[in-house]
């Protein structure tokens, strides 16, 4: 229930809602703080952080905040609040950095959303609770967390290379990688108890990092 939500998660949700609402009402505010390659190249690095608190509409905002509420709770319960915040903000920046890498030759590429931070939070939750079951639309049976994680990475790679939908697949990938790395650094015991999950999730990530630039784009 909302009254039992971790205060750090609640504050992040409030910040996302308030900042996004201002962006909904004032395009100049959204334009000033969104992720945009040309502006970042000109020195406005702060956009890599601020873009993670802006959203295009209520649906975009609601989906990200719902995922943050669900998976953030798992992370804060199984590690410290300070570790969760490191994972959240580290994943946000990792998502922005990976997006910049993928789109640095596209000066007008722009994006907003907490998806990178949320993707990192989801992957952290999977590592910390590998036995978790996830229910997805149109799939009547629960999916083990590690299977979802592998599928998420593979679909995001496909989406990035084939420009599927108006979705920041690069931010999703960067955030997931950031959440994966930071979680195992901050919780080294996982190598003892959840090594199989680490290996299974590491395989598609290593594939992306080694061969990602060689994969053809649409």
UniProtKB/TrEMBL annotation:
It is a multi-pass membrane protein. Belongs to the peptidase S54 family. GO terms for molecular function: peptidase activity. InterPro entries: Peptidase_S54_rhomboid_dom, Rhomboid-like_sf, Rhomboid_protease_S54. Keywords: Hydrolase, Membrane, Protease, Transmembrane, Transmembrane helix. GO terms for biological process: proteolysis. The chain crosses the membrane at residues 46-69, 81-100, 107-128, 134-155, 167-186, 192-212. Its EC number is 3.4.21.-. The keyword Hydrolase applies. Residues 43-186 form the Peptidase S54 rhomboid domain. It is an enzyme of class 3 (hydrolase). Pfam families: Rhomboid. SUPFAM superfamilies: Rhomboid-like (SSF144091). This is Rhomboid family intramembrane serine protease. It is found in: Membrane.
């Amino acid at each position: 229930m909302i009254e039992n939500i971790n205060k750090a998660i609640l504050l992040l949700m409030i910040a996302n809602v308030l900042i996004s609402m201002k962006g909904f009402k004032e395009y100049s505010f959204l334009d000033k703080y969104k992720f945009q390659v040309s502006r970042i190249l000109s020195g406005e690095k702060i956009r890599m952080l601020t873009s993670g608190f802006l959203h295009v509409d209520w649906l975009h905002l609601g989906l990200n905040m719902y995922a943050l509420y669900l998976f953030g709770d798992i992370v804060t319960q199984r590690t410290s609040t300070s570790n969760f915040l490191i994972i959240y903000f580290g994943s946000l920046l990792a998502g922005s950095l990976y997006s910049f890498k993928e789109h640095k030759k596209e000066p007008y590429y722009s994006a907003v959303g907490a998806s990178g931070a949320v993707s990192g939070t989801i992957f952290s939750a999977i590592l910390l609770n590998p036995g978790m079951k996830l229910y997805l639309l149109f799939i009547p049976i629960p999916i083990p967390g590690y299977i979802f994680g592998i599928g998420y990475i593979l679909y995001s790679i496909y989406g990035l290379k084939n420009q599927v939908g108006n979705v920041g697949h690069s931010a999703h990938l960067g955030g997931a990688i950031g959440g994966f790395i930071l979680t195992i650094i901050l919780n080294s015991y996982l190598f003892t108890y959840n090594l199989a999950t680490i290996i299974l999730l590491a395989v598609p990530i290593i594939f992306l990092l080694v061969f990602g630039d060689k994969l053809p784009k649409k």
